[in-house]
Amino acid sequence: MNKKHVQLIIFDFNGVTVIGDHKKTSRHFAKIHGTPWQAVFNVLYTKYFNLIAENKITERQGWIRPIRELGWRQDWRAMRAWHLRHTELRRSVVQYVTRLRHRGYTCIILSKNLVAWFAYFDKALGFKKYFDDSINTQSLNLPKASKKTVAYICRRFRVKPSEIVYIDDQAANLVEPSKMGVNTILYKNFKQMRRAITRAL
């Protein structure tokens, strides 16, 4: 990739921009119920949250079904409240985004989140003020990890895939963008991400 041509930097929301996601929730409740956390994550997030985010089931169903499948006796409302409450900005990332924007790069959030949650998190954390724009794929009725979403971003921001750097903490979300020529970075920690972005720019 021609390093001079990067125009747009995309940051994932949960797992990159903020601390607190379905992994954290899965670990917390897995410990309470004596269930392997990865098994909880696979049911809670991979199987059911994706269906909520793509408007295929309701949010209520997206909590009740995994609880039943896991065989737990758990109030879904309490589980949801814990999940929403344990989310905070990753300060190192938003401070770095501010520096990137001062250097002239457009920085946006790309999230697969519920519309109501996204509004709640912005009110609680004020994350949108740190970015040029934010996109929540549920609002578009698009799957996040898809060519259609990348194509939409390219049209909206008038960029080519090769002019985009995209950071996400889940490898599955980076497969299709990478195939299209987007420079993808799998987030592991802040320092690793910053080094990877520096190389890309």
Structural class, please? alpha/beta
Total beta strands: 7
The name of the CATH topology of the largest domain is Rossmann fold
Number of domains: 2
Gist of the model:
This protein is of the alpha/beta class. Helices cover 52% and strands 14% of the residues.
Descriptors:
10 helices; 14% strand; five-stranded parallel beta sheet; globular; two-stranded antiparallel sheet; Rossmann fold; 2 domains; 201 residues; alpha/beta
Written description of the protein model:
There is one protein chain. The protein is 52% helix and 14% strand. The strands form 2 sheets. The chain has a 5-stranded parallel sheet with strand order 5-4-1-6-7. The mean pLDDT is 94. By secondary structure, it is an alpha/beta fold. The longest helix is centred in the N-terminal third of the chain and has 17 residues, at 37-53.
